[in-house]
Amino acid sequence: MDSVRLVETQCKTPRASCFQPKGTFGWYGFQNLWDLLAERVLQPDVEDSHIWKFSASGQYSAKPAYDAMFIGAIQFQPWERIWKSWAPGKCKFFMWLVAHNRCWTADRLAKKGLAHPEKCPLCDQEEETINHLLLSCVFARQTWFEILLGLGLQVLSPQLEDPSFEEWWHKVSSKVSGQVQKGLNSIIILVAWSLWNHRNRCVFDGLHPNLNELLSIIREELHLWGFSWGSRN
Questions:
Q1: How far is CA 120 from the centre of its chain?
Q2: What are the tens digits of pLDDT across the range 18-63?
Q3: Residue 100 CB: number of other CB atoms within 10 A?
Q4: Do 221 and 201 touch, CB atoms closer than 8 A?
Q5: Can you tell me the distance from the alpha carbon of 127 to that of 175, in angstroms, rounded to the nearest whole number?
Q6: How far are the Cα atoms of 41, 121, 180, 212, 225 from residue 206, in angstroms, in the given order?
């Protein structure tokens, strides 16, 4: 009697098969399982025990079971910096778009054959990409420096050698920890969000880039967000 018929014979339901392998993979998996079980010697006088291999104690719980679902998954690097910040939800979502390069900057509009600015709307010097807009643009770099200077963090300002906004953010965020890190991540999100809004006003409302106006808006928002942060501590 072959292995499948042996299992079927032990089933109490005549028309149901306890195991119905389908396709080559199904047969291979069944034969592999059969070989593994053939090496086991049952001990009727020993009580069975269950061991959950994904926890150190061997006991099942919901958290390690949930974590096990992501074994081998690709990690989204900036998730904690974004979603665990004090920034409002709309700003967090914007940063999620930034991290996935899903903002409608000129380079992406061009790829879709849509109308787009020939040069960066803030500096009018280079092609607009999200990394240029938030990091390497001279207007953006001046914005970062002025805001971080006011906080005594000017040494963290973006430099020309920083390859991308994400790598710069990861670098400066890793230099601090705890509540300071959470606050710094929130400030970075605010400045990036403000740069994006200022860019959109230039593109759609005909505004000329105005550093002093942007700095004033960011500082006012920092003041308002400060009350929010204080209420959470």
A1: 27
A2: 455 555 556 777 778 788 778 778 788 888 788 888 888 888 888 8
A3: 11
A4: no
A5: 31
A6: 80, 10, 37, 17, 28
Contact 196, 103 (CB under 8 A): yes
Span 213-231, pLDDT tens digits: 999 999 999 888 875 554 5
User: What is the pTM (predicted TM-score) of this model?
Assistant: 0.69
d(CA 226, CA 179): 13
Position 65: which residue type? A
SS3 breakdown of the chain: % helix, strand, coil, rounded to 5?
A: 55, 0, 45
* Whether 75 contacts 214, CB under 8 Å: no
**What whole-number distance in Å separates Cα of residue 210 and Cα of residue 212?**
6
Report the C-alpha gap between 2 and 115 in whole angstroms.
Answer: 68
Q: Which of 46-55, 66-75, 117-126, 192-201 has the lowest mean pLDDT?
A: 66-75
Note the residue count of the chain: 233
Burial per residue of 139-152, b for 16 or more beta-carbon CB atoms within 10 angstroms, e otherwise: bbbbbbebbbeeee
CA distance 107 to 96: 18
Within 10 Å of residue 183's Cβ, how many Cβ atoms? Answer: 17
| Structure confidence by residue, pLDDT tens digits, 182-213 | 999 999 999 999 999 999 999 999 999 999 99
Rounded Cα–Cα distance for residues 168 and 130 (Å): 13
